[in-house]
Amino acid sequence: MKYDYLVVGAGLFGAVFAHEMAMQGKAVLVIDKRDHVAGNIYTENRMGINVHKYGAHIFHTSDKEVWDYVNEFTEFNNYINSPVAVYKDELYNLPFNMNTFSKMWNIRTPMEAKEIIKKQADAEVDRIRKERAADEFEPANLEEQALSLAGRDIYEKLIKGYTEKQWGRDCTELPSFIIKRLPMRFVYDNNYFNDRYQGIPMGGYTALVERLLLIKQDDEKSSLPGSITVKTGVDYYDFVKMEGNIPAEPFESVNGDSFGRILFTGMIDEFFGYKLGTLEYRSLRFETEDLPDVDNYQGNAVVNYTEREVPYTRIIEHKHFEYGQGKGTIITKEYPANWKHGDEPYYPMNDDKNNKLYTQYVDMAKEYPNILFGGRLGQYKYYNMDQVVRAALDMVAAQ
Ligand SMILES: Cc1cc2nc3c(=O)[nH]c(=O)nc-3n(C[C@H](O)[C@H](O)[C@H](O)COP(=O)(O)OP(=O)(O)OC[C@H]3O[C@@H](n4cnc5c(N)ncnc54)[C@H](O)[C@@H]3O)c2cc1C
Fold it and tell me: What's the whole-model pTM score?
């Protein structure tokens, strides 16, 4: 068959793009190498619970247009992310706010909290200046930066171990720019995000993507002027007739389908056969446990473990994202991991070295105007979901 577009990747970016192209009357084929759609926002329903298979996902945005857009495809609940941090046998609210400070120092007012933080932070800056016999304070690493912003108590209990686990290195070996500022709230407010809109799609993220891709046929939105065909378990590199990884135009698949243009949402460096070098990522490992005999494991969807000695960074209890009341529960322990070829690339390492390499790939891509690159892997950007929707809509508008 002759398609207008081949969309590689059935994640959020690919799904929004495909939907909008079908709205414009285009015929779109979407392929994904995984055996399911929705990419990293995939949720799998087990024991009546929507499990966030690739990590906890909370939709939050201040972009009203994006919020209205996603609400056309699903109803969101009123979930507000309010994680809790565990340090040894102590428990604190996040983000850093009056609940955190009050628990840490047994105080009540913002003035008291500000005074303690300032006193501790000033003491650290003085100590470092003296050690270096320097008049000015310039943080030499992340530890010094965090101490100068938050003081010792918050750093030791809530920042140090967690950050070291995330990056796999001591805070003294990490650059200070990773923490530019530490958001602190001097009100009693545990809402982790500052955005105007927030929630979890009722019924899970997979249903949202299925509606975008017109898989849910009961939906009135499935009668669009164009069409979307979805094939999962299909890797791009097995699918196209290739010279290198780039088929000659008009693009063709091994079984004769042809395409006007391609949107690629996989890794851009892989697409070009790593010719210029490899872009780096941080990865994650998830350990999920079904607990049919436990109804409420931790009383909150997200609990962070801030000690370095506990190997995971957080435990997610999925049912709490949707206020689940049923029997049994499912938890996931999240372990940060180094990334190597073949691992799931979760977080782009957007430092100078990698960003420079990425722009070289972008220059290379300019030679192929009929191949578009989108999403967190194609554009090598840490995108939140709302930013993905915005970027996909902008890309559609630019065609
Ligand atoms: C642990 C974690 C937690 C997150 N939490 C949040 C959150 O709370 N809130 C938020 O807004 N955002 C969150 N995000 C970000 C969110 O996951 C992304 O914004 C979103 O999933 C990106 O969508 P995408 O379509 O660009 O990429 P993906 O979802 O990765 O989709 C790309 C798809 O392309 C497919 N693919 C790749 N290569 C090929 C190939 N060769 N052939 C065929 N298919 C291929 C992949 O299988 C994948 O399905 C989180 C991310 C992570 C990693």
Answer: 0.95
Q: What is the pLDDT of residue 351?
A: 86
Position 16 in a domain: yes
Quote the ligand 1 centre to 389 CA distance (angstroms): 12
On whether residue 95 sits in a domain, the answer given is no
Averaged in consecutive runs of 10 residues, what is the pLDDT profile of the chain (399 residues)?
97 98 97 98 97 97 98 97 97 98 98 98 96 91 96 98 94 91 94 97 96 77 85 94 75 91 97 94 96 98 97 98 96 95 90 95 96 97 97 97
Ligand 1, pocket-test mutation among 20, 57, 209, most atoms within 8 A of CB: 57
Residue 237 within a domain: yes
Predicted pLDDT at 121: 97
> What is the Å distance from ligand 1's center to 41 Cα?
6
pLDDT computed for residue 217 by the predictor? 60
Q: Determine, yes or no, domain membership for 25.
A: yes
360 Cα–ligand 1 center, Å: 23
Are both 203 and 61 inside the same structural domain?
yes
Beta bridge partners of 86: 91, 305
**For position 47, which CATH number holds?**
3.40.50.720
